[in-house]
């Protein structure tokens, strides 16, 4: 089948961020081209023009399309017959809004790292711009791309677990147990800086992933939230540990715990969902397994691509036979792939879904910013319960 039929060509990608020393930019670049549906053709890879252009060779970006700034990129690309179809934003939080707004207003599709923006006000404004523009806008809550996470969502929505009563979603790391930011480590430095990261540290960085995973799998809409955030490393400006309790509209309860100061923990995102008919458990560090439990029955271990008991959402997300592990890059690529489907439809003049998408979208991004805002607000009120629901939240 031709690439991206009926376009019959690869989508042209521009990368913002990802210059020398970056982490997530390389992940975006790898995931974007994994299925041969896109090619990186342009980039503004650093806020430092010299470093930006020097980094271009790392991505095989031609010299003439290695830009010193994202504004230069937007203006120059607009004049090309072969301009980029979309841009991926892999920069610190405080830069997302202006970059995304610039490209959305120019009619480009956008894939943006999370959190969506620096604060909720920016997120709300960006939502208006996106809705007006009609572009495809994805947010890389990449853990929703794992095949067995999508399987879990399908099982919940099909009623296999019955009514959902409880969700326990946790994201536990240990890399910030010491003041790593004081040693000028790039990732630690900007993630712990309120001027670049926003009002939350650990909870904005990884707590949003834990919350989003529970929302994605269950489809439950939140109603109220209580939260307690803590700085355990003396002198740090933003939280490095936190716990939130969410009440959903159906009466279910969810806990969200995030830590970056737990010894020996690497990237331990895991979730448990309890329903009236059954329960499931999934761990990101062992993503090819999904544990299913029912009282009075042996525990069942679902494995990625393990057999016909798995549903269509899972099947559309796998590339390899069972026993050949898939993980982080593939999950990230699944977010890209579903966004590509919408981009191809848009380029071909077809209608495409913008709200109830498989990939995380602008509405998920706004709700993530609302989550951060309400968690900080509740924590300042000693964990008091406050309303938590965005009028445009989707299931």
UniProtKB/TrEMBL annotation:
This is Gfo/Idh/MocA family oxidoreductase. It holds the Pfam family GFO_IDH_MocA. It comes from Gemmata palustris. Residues 149-281 form the GFO/IDH/MocA-like oxidoreductase domain. Transmembrane segments: none annotated. InterPro entries: Gfo/Idh/MocA-like_OxRdtase_N, Gfo/Idh/MocA_oxidoreduct, GFO_IDH_MocA-like_dom, NAD(P)-bd_dom_sf. Residues 12-141 form the Gfo/Idh/MocA-like oxidoreductase N-terminal domain.
